[in-house]
TrEMBL record:
One of its GO terms (molecular function) is hydrolase activity. Residues 42-272 form the AB hydrolase-1 domain. This is Alpha/beta hydrolase. Pfam families: Abhydrolase_1 (PF00561).
Amino acid sequence: MTKSHPPQTSSIIMWKDAPTRSVDVAGTTFVYRRLGPTSGIPLIMLNHWGATLDNFDPRIVDDLAAARPVISVSYRGIGASGGKAPLTVAEMADDAIAFIRELGFEKVDLLGFSLGGFVAQDIVLKEPDLVRKIILTGTGPAGGKGIDKVGPTSWPLILKGMLTFRDPKFYLFFTSTANGRRAATAFLDRLKERKADRDKPITMTAFLRQLKAIRAWGKQARQDLSTIRKPVLVANGDQDKMVPSSNSIDLARRLPNAELVLYEDAGHGGIFQYHEAFVKKALEFLDG
């Protein structure tokens, strides 16, 4: 693992080869990977429940990083990041803000998937001047429909994955149609492309603490999203079982400057199933 602050990356480095770096943030070590150009507004990527650095889709990261700096980070207590996993989204947002500041950035774009989308919303509500544009995928607002039920929805599919010797994301993130099954297989194969310097697996303790934070977000009072004037791209599959797709529609309705994209015959991992279309849309949004 390389210990360092920002730059030092080349646009020709691919996600599977990007070095894992670390930075001390108020006494806690956070691991991250950075690739793409060394200048420009960085895109900070915040991932889902149970995700380490190795759960970011290589195809999405590589294609985004061909045009701009991209930085992914493991939350506190996740993967090789130090400390104990927070029990609230608010704490994760505070950590992310401190991480961004420690790397020396005054303005960033955010891409939050699922849990990462909760965190991204909290970041922009707390530090609006820090954020330029936001991409919210497979996610929903505080108090959103079914978010407090992510655990009960997920456990049977996690068990199904164990019984069928498949990664549970095969069932959690994708539809059971032929298209969904093909997309799931391709996505899970991509996650195996990186062979060396992989992040540490998440512990069960951290996994369950994150679930408590998700449940708390689902039970939390609605936030006033009308104060978020930044441009927002909301994307999801039209059949998300984990964070029901109606939440994406609700986000787009309540955010004053939002655009909604729903991918057909796609679940929670709609951006992975339609990664080429998603990256094209994301780059148009970020560059627009």
